[in-house]
Structure formats: structure tokens, C-alpha cells
Amino acid sequence: MIVAQGLVEAPVLDALFKLTARPRPEDALRALREVDVQDAVLAAAQRMRHLAIEEDDARKERGQPLINYRRFYVGGVGIGVVLGRRYSTPYEWWVFAASNTKPSKKADKYCAEMRIIRAAKEVRCSCIGGIGVLGENQPDGRSGNLRKTLDPCGGCRDCMRHVGNRYLFRARTLIMTAQPLSQVRYVETLPKMMAAHGEKWP
Ligand SMILES: [Zn+2]
Predict the structure, then answer these.
(1) Alpha-carbon span 92 to 62, nearest angstrom
(2) Whole-number Å distance between alpha carbons of 76 and 98
(3) pLDDT below 70 — which residues of the chain?
(4) What is the C-alpha radius of gyration for the chain, rounded to an integer number of angstroms?
(5) CB of 129 closer than 8 Å to CB of 25
(6) β-strand 125-135 against 174-178: which pairing, if any?
(7) Which of 32, 67, 70, 103 could serve as a FRET partner for 85 with CA atoms 20 to 30 Å apart?
């Protein structure tokens, strides 16, 4: 069984299968170091971001409230493994792509990364090896640090560290960030990303 939301994730799964058809958590943790996987993840994150932009364009035209009132769109893709159903394949690849929403100033934001974490729990993912995040850069809302690309926000970092979620991650889980329509990507471990904001993992 391949757990996938749909067509957006398919090219990422293809790239992962080329890496190995019988993944272990170890493979999920190294996947985002492979350029082919990076390319596929960025393309999928870009696609999710565009789908959200298109959705809001259509809503605007119809005079409906936007799903993202600030029009600040972020696409994200999580890579991991779930327990396999057959003895021959103890683990199977898992990929989930998402985008962020914040319908109004008062409404809670729901980030792509938060959706990835929720989806991972739903399918009993045993290890998120990497998360790709694609969005326009801006200073971090909590630390105020402006890095070269947009990191998961303070709320998402809390969500990753949360006692009910941290089992999904490892100290070697990779975070890849990139700007929309840019080939330049940055890959670092989860603890390193958190340290850049003066925070500790876990
Ligand atoms: Zn966030």
C-alpha cells in the first residue's frame, strides 16, 4: 500500500522508489540529500502553493472569503515511512503535500507543516525523514531572524517538539527550504534549524 494524497505526491514517490523500493527509516532520513528527491519535493511544494493561489484567485473573483487572507502562501512536503503490511516489506514510503491557510486575522493559522504532522499521525508514520518548505522569505515571526529562506514558523517548531508529536522526528530529520521559482535550496537537520532561532531540539 502506498499512502498518498494524490497526483501531486506521485513524482516524489517515484524519486523515492528509485532510491529504494524497500525503505527503512534510515532511507527516509537521507532522502532529502538526493538531488532528484529534492527536485521532486520542491516541484510538489510549488504545485501545492500554486493550487492555493489559484483557489484564492477564484474565490476573489466570486467575491468569497479567501483561505489565506494575507495571501502568504507556503507549500510543504513531508517524506517518511509507514509500517508495511507484508513481511517482505517492513516499511513503505509515505509522502504528503500540503499548503497553509489563514482565512482571517482572528482565525488560527494552519501551516503546511502542521498538516503534514497531522497526516503522518493519521497513517501511523513511524519516522518523518524530511520536510520541504517553499515560501517567500520573511523574518521569523518569533526569533525575528531573517535567514536565506523561510523556515517552519515558531508555531510549527512547537508542533514538532510537542510531546505527542516528537516521536515522528529524529535528530537527523532534514528540513529543506527554498524560495518560489528558485533552484537554490538549503538542507539542514531539524536541531540545526531550531538552533538558528535560538531553540533546542527536542
Ligand atoms: Zn508554521
Answers:
(1) 42
(2) 5
(3) 1-5
(4) 16
(5) yes
(6) parallel
(7) 32
Distance from residue 28's CA to the centre of ligand 1 (Å) = 22
How far is Cα of residue 28 from the mean position of the Cα atoms in its chain? Answer: 13
Q: Find how far residue 14's CA is from the centre of its chain.
A: 17
Report how far ligand 1's centroid is from the alpha carbon of 159 (Å): 9
Amino acid occupying residue 65: P
DSSP 152: P
- Helices 35-62 + 10-19 axis angle, to 10: 170
Q: How far is it, in rounded angstroms, from Cα 169 to Cα 159?
A: 11
158 with 142: CB under 8 angstroms? no
- Unique residue bearing C-alpha cell 529534492: 38
Output the CA–CA distances (angstroms, integers) from residue 39 to 11, 33, 181, in the order listed. 10, 11, 12
Alpha carbons 171 and 129: distance in angstroms, whole number: 10
pLDDT digits (tens, 9 = 90+) for 138-179: 999 999 999 999 999 999 999 999 999 999 999 999 999 999
- For residue 157, the CA-to-ligand 1 centroid distance in Å is 7
Q: Go through the domains of the chain in sequence order and give each one's CATH number.
A: 3-195 (3.40.140.10)
Q: Quickly count: other Cβ atoms within 10 Å of residue 101's Cβ.
A: 22
Ligand 1 centroid – CA 44 distance (Å): 18
Which residues hold their Cβ within 5 A of ligand 1, which is an ion? Answer: 111, 153, 155-156
Q: How much is the pTM?
A: 0.95
- Grid coordinates representing 172 are 537527523
